[in-house]
Amino acid sequence: MSTVTDPSPEVTRTRRAKPRLSDRSRAEERLGWKLAMPAFVVMLLVTAYPILQAVWNSFFAYRLTDPANREFVGLNNYIVSFSDSVFWSAMWATVLITVITVVVELILGFIIALVMHRIVLPRRTLRTIVLIPYSIITVVSGFTWLFMYRTDTGFVNRWTSWVPGVSENYDWFGSFWPSIFVICLSEIWKTTPFMSLLLLAGLAQVDTSMEEAAKVDGASWLQVLVKVILPNMKPAIMVAVLFRTLDAFRIFDNIFIMTGGANGTNSLSGLIYRQTIDRTEIGLGSALSVILFLCVLAIAALFVRGFKVDLTQGRN
């Protein structure tokens, strides 16, 4: 004869501790889905077919110049990609550029956001000036930085000839690290305003009464920053870092313009371009595109889980 045992007190407490959404929260959630659904359906229709087509093409040995010899090869394109040193070189350059640019942009963007948040008189003028680099087309920006650092048309070498190791004939695009330096510098210059605007929106959400209370309790400016401002900016920081990381991981324009992928500076997007456009290897290029897509999804998932931001906090 079987017996039914009562749940343990720990299980009971866990069940009771589970938050329950109020009627207002449910209504807001339904409204959010209704407002987002049209855009979601349009984006799904526009993006679903290219994604599925890329996945399908990745299973074939398929050259655009010879469509009659299309052959099913299964996962061979992925095996070839992962076993090629060129792929790992492009992955290394992509990750390196992403880490350097995002970290520097986060620091600089936060400093600029603090200045724009605290300043009183020319606030709108300052925000407009800060946005100028971000408003320039990436191709135009890339050519500008290229001309600045070239030995025949640039002026950077003349201005920095006093730096050890730099002369008027120094070739910034002749080796890996100088090329990476210029590429990262151009990315940081252009996209830091984007980061600063997102962080400025987060600063505007911080309750000033909390800062004043911390100062009354004797907290220093650094303690207020670490204990009050940054924790309350966590959602904004997550959005800014996530968006910028995904954008930096897909870098193509500046590398294509400045180095063309030479000296080991090619990115994953540049490698995809080389396979699909230059070599017309649609199958292999599609496999690389799928790999890049999965990397972007993995980055987004890691950021969302890592930051552990509750966007519904404070809802009644």
From TrEMBL:
Transmembrane segments: 31-52, 90-116, 128-149, 282-304
Listed Gene3D superfamilies: MetI-like
Membrane topology listed for this record: Multi-pass membrane protein
Top-level taxon of origin: Bacteria
Residues of the ABC transmembrane type-1 domain: 91-303
Subcellular location: Cell membrane
InterPro entries reported for this sequence: MetI-like, MetI-like_sf
Keywords: Cell membrane, Membrane, Transmembrane, Transmembrane helix, Transport
Chain segments carrying region Disordered: 1-23
Family: Belongs to the binding-protein-dependent transport system permease family.
Protein name (record): Sugar ABC transporter permease
Organism expressing this protein natively: Janibacter terrae
